[in-house]
Batch of 2 targets.
Target 1
Amino acid sequence: MNKALKLFIIFTVLACLAAPITLFAGGKQEQAEPMEKEEAPMEKEEPIEEAKTVEPFDIGIFVPGVVAGSPLYEQMVAGAEKAASEYDQVTIKVLEAGFNQGEWEEKMVSMAATEEYELILTSNGAMPYVAMPAAEAFPSQKFLIVDAIYPGHPQMFTLLYNQVEQAYLVGYLGGLVTKSNMTGATPELKIGMIVGQEYPAMTEMIKPGFEKGGKAVDAGITVDYRVLGNWYDANKAGELAKSMMDGGVDVIMTACGGANQGVIAAAAERGRYVLYFDDENYKLAPGTIVGCAELNQERAVYEKIVEAIKGTLPYGEAVIVNTADGYVDFADDNDLYIEAVSEDVRAQMADMLKKIRSGSLKLEITKFW
Ligand code: RBF
């Protein structure tokens, strides 16, 4: 379908829908009437000095998937909720766009077409491209896209995490665990990864970072890498995990959204180990989850939204944040980590963490955008 026809249909549909709010699930309720909003100017050109007294600022959160079970989406919503709770006139509305990625572009155009939002917030590396047609059709629509990189688009601000570092942190722990005499460790020097799908951040940052971490412990360590093919099928993820464990894998890094549950359950059943990604979440499976490589997406989203509200967010820029900046880290101050992992493993982990946090060990991203 050509773009003009698509837009025509979208406008017609929206005109027929007296309440476009029905498109949206979850999120904080609107505080202003939709009619009032239409009269409100979309753009906030002037920087606003006193943040607490800002004009209405409505944020549409486009979740490319579903929130529950996907740590970065949960954090994105939490960061926006924090900003909304601190500023009287800031509202948020959450659209869960679901798992059919072929529908995202059109849903994004529909969201921008409401002209309700001063800012559309979204997260993952594909989203600058998914948002492009919406940006073209609505040149005053602004986007904050986290966990993504796209420099130079005047309507977009993007923020990327150094996930070479993030994955190295758990790859290194995986290497220590597989070599250890912890009860679940097998004689084979094999560590595993199960990921939702393949995409540039995965193949250029996360996979190589994880391998590099493992091999830094012992060059003989190999990585069993499996792609699930979606972000929700916990049963299939559990089956993958079992076949990996049958082959001698004792510790698996899981990054497959809602399907993580299947990996965790399978490892728990066999007394083996899981490395959790994006969030600190030992409590999900104490003793099974032995390490968490976290991203501080909640803080990043909160900070950038505040800049957007104040009119100081530099659209067109693309920032990259890392461990030394405090947006990437390993959660080593949790009792459940201390209980789960043997003392010698923790001591070696602590040495490595010191180096990476201080910046004396630097892991560069090879440019992939
Ligand atoms: N991560 C999730 O946890 N849940 C998802 O539904 C999800 N969907 C994604 C879809 C695409 C097209 C891409 C590129 C990434 C997706 N991710 C998802 C991965 C997420 O952006 C991030 O890379 C991982 O959470 C690892 O940090």
Note: Residues 200-217 form the longest helix (18 residues).
Target 2
Amino acid sequence: QDPFPRPGRIRVITVANQKGGVGKTTSTVNLGVALAMYGLRTLVIDLDPQGNTSTALGVEHTVGTPSIYDALVSDATLAEVTHPTTASPNLHCVPATIDLAGAEIELVSVVAREHRLRRSIEGYLDELPPEERPHYVLIDCPPSLGLLTLNALVAGDEVLIPIQCEYYALEGLGQLLSNIDLVRAHLNPGISVSTILLTMYDGRTKLADQVADEVRNHFGELVLTAVIPRNVRVSEAPGYGQSVLTYDPGSRGSTSYVEAARELAARGAQLAPASPPPPPPA
Ligand code: ADP
Ligand code: MG
């Protein structure tokens, strides 16, 4: 049995947590690389003006590089701003440039501003022949609940929340969850939290275990069994424009991200195919 089976349908997963430094970018990058290395076509969209995801995937993101900004604010298609990566032929990336920092303000006057990313992804998938469509689209959000994250919640089917095994881990989570509820009620009925990933776990501290237990009690099966340990190789890799899987494949950081990706893929295989559009009226 294939440990990385194809998902029942294309999975658009928004990686969100308005708290900074919890492992959103690190998880997006390493899960994306893992899925791609094990044969699943993956598109990673960097939605943080810092462009850390782009950096970690070795994708240029200097001002002027075709980026997510052009797709959101101008009328570039997603295909026009999608770049290959060196990590895997299965992995593509839409980078973010610092221009994106202005996008939240520029978008305010744009029609259907919350739907820009969703439209962009839909158009992209429609244009691609089925055999080139990604199995996974991962969207890395900035550390805020502004219009960019809102676009990502409207674009996604699923939310993956990384939670750092630290003090105040759960602080702010209520606000994120109520934002997701609001989006589901008003903008995107298809969105729900599907996955919680515990990150930066330090097995030497009692606190890390307490936080992990608390998160598991609260979120039950949504929490992946795989836990990402705090591991220096994980934090070194982006400096070399690499994921930890390519930088140090034997490290615990690498093996834990592969395991988390395997679990994610196994769950994806259980998903029912997207329902076909209703037949046109006779
Ligand atoms: P976010 O995108 O949520 O702001 P990052 O993924 O950028 O968070 O992670 C914040 C910092 O923590 C980065 O410097 C990153 O390299 C480091 N980091 C993330 N995960 C780990 C880990 N498992 N072990 C060690 N350092 C980590
Ligand atoms: Mg980040």
Note: The mean pLDDT is 95.
